[in-house]
Write a structure and sequence with these properties.
With about 400 residues, the chain is an alpha+beta fold. The protein has 8 helices and 10 strands. It has helices at about 1-20, 25-30, 225-245, 255-275, 285-315, 320-330, 345-355, 360-400, and strands at about 45-60, 65-80, 95-100, 110, 125-130, 135-145, 160-165, 175-185, 195-205, 210-225. The strands form 2 sheets. A 6-stranded mixed beta sheet has the order 3-5-6-2-1-8, with helices on one face. Strand 1 (about 45-60) and strand 2 (about 65-80) form a beta hairpin. Helix 3 runs antiparallel to helix 4, helix 3 (about 225-245) packs antiparallel against helix 8 (about 360-400) and helix 4 packs antiparallel against helix 5. The protein is rod-shaped.
């Protein structure tokens, strides 16, 4: 009788050693016949892995280096057949946490990553195994990815940046990577002060004759415009409009060149500040930079035109330029107080009349002063048209974009 009892106790103790006592033992028994680098499916089967990208924060979008720094996590979920347990038999335990070294993880690499050769995670994050055989894994990191940028329409530009995940070891005939529904989420997302995400996109590509898969997550980023409009575009438009007021200052007041040079210096100082805000890239030139150069050229030409007007204002009656302009305007203009007669006679006649009449020199100076004002007005109209053409072209291009 005693040997039989001892035999029963021995069998029970041996069976207790090989019978899983906890769900964690079930998981370890499932993977004990498989290496961690092997796929946890039988030969001929395809393992389906769903991937989700959750964006937490846009840290930086560097126009010079053309890189996007993002804090995000990648969520992976897949189901293993034959792995599971009855929760009621194990104290209603629905999940267990397993170290990532104990089982196979998706072999995706972020191949447009700038650092760490595309590793998806910096720290070791455990996986979660559920009672129905579902495995979940999170890979969180601050990702630095390349992002080709086009700043032609700054500050109304729109950029498209991508996360390119590429299958690294397994084949598409062994592991099928799909997008989780929804593929891109923004749980706990913090807004960026300069950029906002307006749209997302996902698509899948096959490379190397279909052996490998690539999952591409796209973000459409739009620059926030109020700061740039208020700090750059409005002041430059005001300075450009103020530049036209130079042609309304009378040449004899002595303040024409003072205002002209003051506006030019103000524009130069403000241009130095704006250059710190413009994207310092060379592969695509911003339209706003071209506009600033055009306005600077117009302001330089304004100084030249103002010097020319002052030169006309102080020209002597014997000056050849004064005589030529007098002849030209005598055929095109009339005095406002002489609607039926010519505006100006030749300068030589004015000089001859100066010895005969008392008010002849005064009449000649009035006529010449009127001509100088007409030249000043002609410059005003010309520069106004150039300013309106440049500004309208710029804003139309930005609005169309």
């Amino acid at each position: 009788m005693e040997p039989a009892v001892l035999m029963m106790l021995f069998v029970h103790s041996v069976a207790g050693r090989f019978t899983p006592n906890t769900p964690l033992d079930i998981v370890f028994d499932y993977f004990k016949t498989r290496q961690t680098l092997q796929f946890p499916v039988y030969e001929g089967e395809i393992l389906t892995v769903s991937v989700n990208l959750n964006v937490l924060h846009l840290d930086d979008l560097d126009e010079t280096k053309q890189t996007l720094t993002t804090t995000a996590w990648l969520y992976f979920v897949w189901n293993l057949k034959g792995l599971g347990w009855n929760e009621t038999k194990y104290q209603n335990i629905s999940r267990v946490v397993v170290s990532e070294e104990e089982l196979w993880l998706p072999d995706l690499k972020l191949y447009n990553s700038i650092n760490t050769f595309g590793h998806l995670s910096e720290d070791s994050f455990p996986t979660t195994v559920w009672s129905n055989g579902t495995v979940e894994w999170y890979a969180a990191k601050k990702y630095v990815t390349s992002c080709k940028m086009d700043v032609s329409y700054f500050p109304f530009d729109r950029q498209r940046c991508y996360f390119r995940l590429m299958q690294w070891v397994s084949f598409s005939s062994e592991v099928n990577f799909t997008f989780y529904d929804p593929p891109i989420t923004f749980r706990a997302f913090e807004e960026n002060g300069e950029w906002e995400i307006t749209d997302t996109s996902v698509h899948k590509e096959y490379t190397y004759e279909g052996k490998y898969q690539s999952l591409i997550f796209g973000l459409v980023l739009v620059r926030r415009r109020p700061f740039y409009v208020l700090s750059m575009m409005v002041p430059m438009s005001v300075l450009s409009a103020l530049n036209l007021m130079v042609f309304h200052v009378p040449p004899g007041s002595g303040e024409k060149m003072t205002l002209c040079v003051s506006v030019l210096l103000s524009y130069s100082v403000y241009l130095t500040y704006i250059n710190t805000l413009l994207p310092p890239v060379s592969d695509s030139v911003t339209l706003f930079s071209i506009y600033l150069i055009c306005m600077f050229v117009l302001k330089t030409l304004t100084v030249v035109a103002s010097v020319f007007v002052l030169h006309l204002h102080s020209a002597l009656p014997t000056s050849k330029l004064r005589q030529r302009l007098t002849r030209y305007f005598s055929t095109t203009l009339t005095l406002s107080n002489q609607p039926n007669g010519p505006l100006i006679k030749a300068a030589s006649q004015d000089v001859k009349m100066s010895g005969k009449g008392v008010d002849a020199p005064s009449l000649s100076e009035k006529r010449w002063s009127f001509i100088v004002k007409r030249v000043d007005h002609l410059f005003f109209v010309t520069f106004l048209l150039l300013f309106l053409t440049s500004s309208t072209g710029l804003f139309c291009a930005l609005l169309v974009n």
